[in-house]
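Researcher: Structure for this, please.
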Amino acid sequence: MKKLSECTVLIVDDTEVNVDILVEALGDDYEISVAMDGESALENIEMEVPDIILLDIMMPGMDGYEVCRHIKENKATAEIPIIFLTAMTDINSKTKGFELGAVDYVTKPFEILEVKARVFTHLSLKLAKYELSKQNEILEKKVIERTKEICLTQEPTIEALACLAEYRDPETGGHIKRTKNYIKILAEELKKNPKFKEILNNKTIELLYKSAPLHDIGKIGIRDNVLLKNGKLTDEEFEEMKKHTIFGYDSLARASKNLGDSSFLKCAMELACSHHEKWNGTGYPNRLVGEEIFLSGRLMAVADVYDALISKRVYKQAYSHEKAVQIIIEGKGQHFDPDIIDAFMNVQEEFRKISYEYADFE
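Model: Predicted structure, token format:
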């Protein structure tokens, strides 16, 4: 931290007697620089920026107000504290000076102890402010570094959790890769709709992309004879399978509670519990209607169904892209948010490309 004795005081006054008094009063405590007029003061400041300026108001040519205005308009010098030197005591003169950015006044004739006290006070404040700003910079850097560390651990954590579901359900691996890319493409397209422009910012879309692999994490809690059944589920078995939305939400909620406020886990919780809800209220687990359903869940519903349709299952053959698109369009306003289906139609070819890129091969 800079010491007070290392600070430079610029004295600007056109009267030599006043300059001599101030130099004698302050010279033992600070580095002193002197200018006898406004133009010279600005030239001095260009060569070496002082720590504080004692500035006479009434000078020939450029007066103190004009000098102050120039200093405050320059970003490099705007933070220099300026103490006006004046014989004027009327309130209007003082108000004008404060409006221009001065921090204080010293009236003539000078009272030496007052001058020394005011210079000491404002230099101490400046140094303290500077030290505080440096500490804030250090803290900001630490926050940025910590945030980067958290971001670096997020994706491996998600992948590790998603892999658990993949081990239980072999169909999950390719599904995870495809759906997280579907939802990102779909969200980016939906963002073009003014209704969703504010909600779907870049940060939100990235969270959707990162959190999407956890939408089926609740399948870990489903019994093997249901999850791995080689055939169509009975009504009773299907009711149990539905519980994966609740299992997923509850497990992520517990993790979120232990880890504190975590935006990616919150997003994953929304996806887990709402991706099987339907626009018309016939979905599960909560039979939510329309915009009661999380936007993340409404997006995932389209991505999830499309992928289920184009994928081979033990109980069905894979549908063509065209057939899958047709079925999804038929679900507009029933199963799916109409706005999202409009966005889907604009990016359906992107969905096809993603399905090929991350296709499951037997």
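Researcher: Any notable elements?
Model: Residues 252 and 258 are 10 Å apart (CA to CA). The chain has a mean pLDDT of 88.
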